[in-house]
């Protein structure tokens, strides 16, 4: 039987007269890497924001892990296991890598990690230690231990993106929303990031919903692809089937033959 972790049903979202999303429905299977593609302004970020709770669609419902989350606030959705990264870096530049990642874990801690250390040898301290161990695991996984004490703002772009991913993972998400995780990266950084996304999906069992413009990456790592165009769903399915679709090739890729498709991204 199909194990669906996310069900988006008939979502419509408008900003004044601008229709960002119109009647978009789709399902994401637990354990999948699901990519959303489409031209600029197609509604991709609006969809991610609707899932995370940042935007409130005027119409439609969103179910996550068998629960109606349509009316839940972003924090409540995060508590249920929806993590995310942003299109533009959203790290605390003046804080260390470790502290940035601990912020991601904050909501999991019963005791506030800022006031926690003030209580002596208390459960709060023990809790912080346990959290630190888990954070160290994530740091090892993403190969950022050499910069764990560095100030986040001083790191290269690729490393900062990885720290952002670490912070999202620290939330212990069942589903992670990635908004253009490879944007602005060189080829090597992109290859690294693709590997980490695959590993967090396979080793940690985290379902991934990702917006990505690099078609090579999308084709390589996605189990399913959905195309948005002018706020509407054009098609979704296996990556090869979507790329072979005539409408997609014309409307989005503007391509005629396979040779050109290879060059995208
Ligand atoms: N907060 C907002 N206020 C007003 N209009 C918005 C807002 N967010 C998105 N829009 C509009 O909704 C439409 C869809 O935008 P969205 O950012 O979701 O597209 P996108 O596919 O993510 O584009 P891009 O690839 O450029 O990031 C656009 O017309 C955009 O201007």
UniProtKB/TrEMBL annotation:
GO terms for molecular function: ATP binding; ATP hydrolysis activity. InterPro entries: AAA+_ATPase, ABC_AA/LPS_Transport, ABC_transporter-like_ATP-bd, P-loop_NTPase. The keyword Nucleotide-binding applies. It comes from the Bacteria. GO terms for cellular component: plasma membrane. Keywords: ATP-binding, Nucleotide-binding, Transport. The keyword Iron does not apply. Residues 6-255 form the ABC transporter domain. Pfam families: ABC_tran (PF00005). This is ATP-binding cassette domain-containing protein. Gene3D superfamilies: P-loop containing nucleotide triphosphate hydrolases.
């Amino acid at each position: 039987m199909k194990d669906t972790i996310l069900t988006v049903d008939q979502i419509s979202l408008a900003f004044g007269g601008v229709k960002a999303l119109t009647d978009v429905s789709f399902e994401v299977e637990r354990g999948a890497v699901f990519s959303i593609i489409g031209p600029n302004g197609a509604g991709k970020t609006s969809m991610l924001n609707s899932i995370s709770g940042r935007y409130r669609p005027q119409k439609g419902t969103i179910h996550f892990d068998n629960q109606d989350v349509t009316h839940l606030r972003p924090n409540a959705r995060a508590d249920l296991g929806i993590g995310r990264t942003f299109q533009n870096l959203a790290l605390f530049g003046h804080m260390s890598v470790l502290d940035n990642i601990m912020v991601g874990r904050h909501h999991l801690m019963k005791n506030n990690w800022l006031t926690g250390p003030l209580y002596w040898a208390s459960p709060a301290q023990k809790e912080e230690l346990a959290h630190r161990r888990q954070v160290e695991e994530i740091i090892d996984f993403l190969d950022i231990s050499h910069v764990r004490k560095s100030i986040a703002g001083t790191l290269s772009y690729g490393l900062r993106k990885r720290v952002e991913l670490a912070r999202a993972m620290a939330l212990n998400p069942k589903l992670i929303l990635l908004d253009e995780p490879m944007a602005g990266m060189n080829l090597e950084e992109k290859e690294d990031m693709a590997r980490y996304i695959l590993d967090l999906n396979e080793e940690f069992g985290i379902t991934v919903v990702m917006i990505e413009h690099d078609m090579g990456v999308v084709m390589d790592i996605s189990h399913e692809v959905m195309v948005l165009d002018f706020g509407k769903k054009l098609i979704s399915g296996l990556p090869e089937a979507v790329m072979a679709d005539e409408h997609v090739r014309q409307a989005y890729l503007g391509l005629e033959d396979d040779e050109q498709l290879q060059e995208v991204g």
